Recover the amino acids of this structure.
């Protein structure tokens, strides 16, 4: 495989050493696909607004097997202590992409195994279509493989991914699979956090079988120097529900890309989210919702609050295939710019091939409303506080869409802890 | 007249659904050999008796074009175009001497008749005087293939100080003006098709409205593609000085034929302080037959620069023709408080493909833009709205409102909406909304119950759907546009 290295230019070169020493046909073929396409740049339409410059110029090493326990413990506590209910929930903890049994509290009602023990790449995520999936396929070390048996209500499971790095960058590429079998129910809370210069490149393969429900919260509180580029595929069966929400608070560059496919009739997909970014952060929520069957519903509400030099990206495509008559699709993207240097780039997209549908999208961009500020100020509320109230309210309207009460409270607690008294800026 | 009767009459009048304007005019053509190279460009330039700087400009554009690649991002599919397999210059053979109306080929006059150029304009072309002040006159600069044959109302315009002439003439007679503005809004290297156009454009219109002048009439150009295998590369430049205003109409029809024809026009608008330009288009080029054979490829670059404070540029378009449309009339809102508008109806039927929309680039403070785009897809066609709203850091107080609605007729077509929204200013407000739906059963039932045929009912509903845009058109155009909508959708229901 040494022949590959000369094809690896740009950011891909940062992984060249590891890509050249792969074992197994699937990984080698993924590396081959990568060598042909390279990592995406702005010429690729799906990456028009997000560059991978943040990956830097230093090679990414494979993470060490041992990580100092106290560091992990303090990161984990940071996550769990945000809200009192969290510590009691069953959790699977990954450190630098590998399962860390010492910190996990495994759930009972589900079938649980790990990618490292029996690597299965699944069918949904295709390396030849998406270079980041290819990178993951080539380098995947471990991942959660979780199966909720038919008819079981498995309650909550937390999937906590911690990155621990120093100044030398390292990357990890977890491959998670979640299957919610027929008529089963799962509330999945994924948390990404960490410290140091790491690159987190997870691929998640989700299947919600007929009549099943998956409520899925993803909280992104990656480390300040971290790059996190996650790709998630969800296959939604007949009359099943995939209700997802992503709360993006950071990392240097974070992209959450969701491909949800309504594969059978009367399925429901929610791909909601909120981002609050500041400093030099870049946050990107990208989604493709495919209606591949009739009578399905999709809903998407995404809100961005951008301060400092932060840049928010929203790309949301709703694709309605010819067969997907009676589709009901709705998408709303709103952004609040708090500073003169902040930027939002939005591309809500409808691609529709069936005629008997109701699809709509809306987008708004603006600053805090002066009238609303005045209203609060005239009632004696200091400016700082008034701004904070308005920002909180703006984001809270999105967070209110999280139906699972525990997950919703968790979101609010994390926001409160992070942004209390931070309504400042120009 | 109630809208229902009007709609029904329009349908009856138009009769069958074949392309009404599908005829060919048999006039001897003066044609350059097929292919594109520096010699062809020199030939075009010398035929048009252009000054040296114009030739240099064309050759530079040709060099740029050679290094460029055809854009692939639009949602349209077509077989590769062989740019060497086309004639780049075709002119009706004309008699020497001044282009007086008497000398216009009678065959040509009959063409205008079939084109449906309004009666009073035809009369003018035929040399008959119209009593003064009877109705608002319209000046026509008819482009017959590549050479403008006649320009009417020139005298009235001259008195007002307005220059309205073929651009080839302007290059010779107003070189300073043309040199000052040509390529400043759409640079030659802006995109693949604008570079091609810059190298080989043969004709088009030039309009100059001096300071403080309200152009006394609406200006109109009828474009027409005639000779087989001649790409049309019009170039239009409209400059409106401080406090002046103009309304410009562009209408297009083309003869039916079986071969694809490439059309790559460039339109540049410049508006100074307090100036206003209204640019209206009804585009009805041959869309190809029911099986998608033939039809015009329409790859157009239209852009307006609001250079002055409080200037305004308004694009209104009704697009029913062409096999493939690739067109994004844009506004660069540079002057403080300048205004950009885009009103569009795009109809596709059979195998047509349209990727059209607009770009509003907000550079100046308190600039405003409005986008209303209505897309109707029928048959096996695909229609995409693609629009960009960009607010740059200095555009404080910028405001945009965008509404895109798509209507699907039949289950074999596609309608897509791809807006790009980019804001770098916290004091800008952008609102965008889009919907996609089919004609509601309730509305259809309501009309049918009152005795309208299904086709008439659809026509009525579609006209209502497009009302926001149609009402922006000048009156004569609005009538024509309504008819066009009807014809374009014939055979798509029932």
């Amino acid at each position: 495989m040494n022949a590959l290295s000369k094809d690896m230019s740009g950011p891909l070169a940062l992984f060249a050493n590891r890509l050249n020493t792969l074992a197994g046909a699937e990984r080698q073929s993924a590396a081959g696909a990568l060598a042909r396409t390279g990592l995406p740049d702005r010429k690729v339409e799906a990456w028009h607004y997000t560059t991978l410059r943040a990956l830097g110029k230093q090679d990414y090493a494979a993470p060490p097997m041992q990580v100092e326990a106290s560091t992990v413990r303090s990161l984990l506590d940071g996550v769990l202590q945000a809200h009192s209910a969290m510590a009691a929930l069953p959790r699977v903890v990954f450190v630098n992409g590998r399962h860390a049994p010492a910190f996990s509290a495994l759930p009972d009602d589900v079938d649980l195994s790990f990618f490292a023990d029996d690597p299965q790449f699944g069918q949904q995520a295709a390396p030849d279509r998406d270079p980041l999936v290819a990178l993951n396929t080539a380098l995947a070390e471990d991942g959660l493989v979780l199966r909720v048996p038919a008819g079981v209500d498995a309650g909550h499971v937390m999937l906590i991914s911690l990155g621990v790095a120093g100044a030398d960058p390292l990357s990890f590429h977890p491959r998670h699979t979640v299957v919610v079998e027929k008529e089963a129910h799962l509330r999945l809370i994924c948390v990404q956090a960490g410290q140091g210069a790491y690159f987190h490149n997870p691929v998640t393969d989700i299947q919600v079988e007929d009549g099943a429900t998956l409520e899925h919260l993803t909280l992104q509180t990656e480390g300040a120097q971290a790059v996190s580029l996650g790709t998630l595929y969800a296959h939604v069966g007949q009359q099943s529900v995939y209700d997802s929400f992503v709360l993006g608070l950071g990392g240097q560059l974070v992209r959450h890309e969701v491909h949800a496919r309504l594969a059978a009739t009367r399925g429901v997909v929610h791909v909601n989210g909120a981002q609050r970014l500041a400093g030099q952060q870049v946050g990107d929520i990208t989604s493709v919702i495919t209606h591949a069957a009739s009578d399905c519903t999709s809903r998407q509400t995404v809100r961005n609050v951008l301060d400092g030099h932060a840049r928010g990206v929203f790309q949301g495509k709703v694709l309605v295939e010819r067969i997907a008559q009676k589709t009901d699709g709705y998408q709303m993207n709103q952004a609040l710019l708090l500073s003169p240097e902040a930027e939002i780039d939005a591309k809500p997209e409808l691609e529709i091939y069936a005629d008997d549908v109701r699809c709509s999208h809306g987008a708004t961009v603006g600053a805090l409303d002066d009238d609303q500020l005045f209203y609060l100020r005239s009632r004696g509320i200091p400016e700082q506080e008034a701004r904070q109230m308005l920002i909180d309210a703006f984001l809270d309207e999105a967070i209110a869409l999280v139906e699972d009460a525990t997950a919703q409270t968790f979101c609010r607690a994390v926001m409160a802890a992070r942004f209390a008294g931070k309504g400042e800026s120009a | 007249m109630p809208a229902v009767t009007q709609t029904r009459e329009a349908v009856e009048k138009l009769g069958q659904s074949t392309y009404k304007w599908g005829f060919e005019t048999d006039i001897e053509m003066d044609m350059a050999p097929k292919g594109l190279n520096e010699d062809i460009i020199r030939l075009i330039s010398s035929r048009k008796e252009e000054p040296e700087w114009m030739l240099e400009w064309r050759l530079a554009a040709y060099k740029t074009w050679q290094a460029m690649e055809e854009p692939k991002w639009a949602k349209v599919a077509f077989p590769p175009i062989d740019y060497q397999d086309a004639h780049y210059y075709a002119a009706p053979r004309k008699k020497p001497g001044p282009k007086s109306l008497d000398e216009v080929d009678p065959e040509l006059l009959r063409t205008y008749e079939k084109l449906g150029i309004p009666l009073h304009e035809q009369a003018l072309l035929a040399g008959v005087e119209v009593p003064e002040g009877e109705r608002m006159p319209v000046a026509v600069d008819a482009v017959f293939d590549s050479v403008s044959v006649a320009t009417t109302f020139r005298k009235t315009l001259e008195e007002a100080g307005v220059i309205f002439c073929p651009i080839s003439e302007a290059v010779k007679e107003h070189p300073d003006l043309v040199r000052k503005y040509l390529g400043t809004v759409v640079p030659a290297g802006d995109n693949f098709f604008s570079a091609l156009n810059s190298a080989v454009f043969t004709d088009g219109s030039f309009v100059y409205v001096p300071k403080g002048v309200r152009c006394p009439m609406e200006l109109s150009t009828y474009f027409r593609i005639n000779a087989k295998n001649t790409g049309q590369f019009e170039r239009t430049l409209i400059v409106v000085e401080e406090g002046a205003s103009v309304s410009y109409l562009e209408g297009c029809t083309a003869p039916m034929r079986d071969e694809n024809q490439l059309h790559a026009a460039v339109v540049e608008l410049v508006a100074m302080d307090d100036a206003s330009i209204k640019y209206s288009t009804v585009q009805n080029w041959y869309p190809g037959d029911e099986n998608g054979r033939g039809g015009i490829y329409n790859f157009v670059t239209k852009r307006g620069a609001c250079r002055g404070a409080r200037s305004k540029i308004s694009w209104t378009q009704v697009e029913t023709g062409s096999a493939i449309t690739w067109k994004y009339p844009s506004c660069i809102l540079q002057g403080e408080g300048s205004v950009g508008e885009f009103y569009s109806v795009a109809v596709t039927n059979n195998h047509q493909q349209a990727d059209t929309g607009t770009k509003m680039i907000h550079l100046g403070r308190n600039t405003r833009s409005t986008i209303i785009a209505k897309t109707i897809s029928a048959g096996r066609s695909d229609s995409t709205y693609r629009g960009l709203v960009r607010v740059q850091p200095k555009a404080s107080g910028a405001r945009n409102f965008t509404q895109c609605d798509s209507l699907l007729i039949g289950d074999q077509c596609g309608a897509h909406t791809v807006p790009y929204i980019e804001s770098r200013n916290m004091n800008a407000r952008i609102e965008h909304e889009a919907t996609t739906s089919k004609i509601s059963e309730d509305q259809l039932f309501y009309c049918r119950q009152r005795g309208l045929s299904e086709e008439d009912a659809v026509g009525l509903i579609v006209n209502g759907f497009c009302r926001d845009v149609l009402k922006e058109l000048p009156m004569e155009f609005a009538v024509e546009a309504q008819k066009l909508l009807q014809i374009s959708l014939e055979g798509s229901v029932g």
Summary: The radius of gyration of chain B is 22 Å. Chain B touches chain A at residues 73, 391, 393, 406, 408-438 (CB under 8 Å).
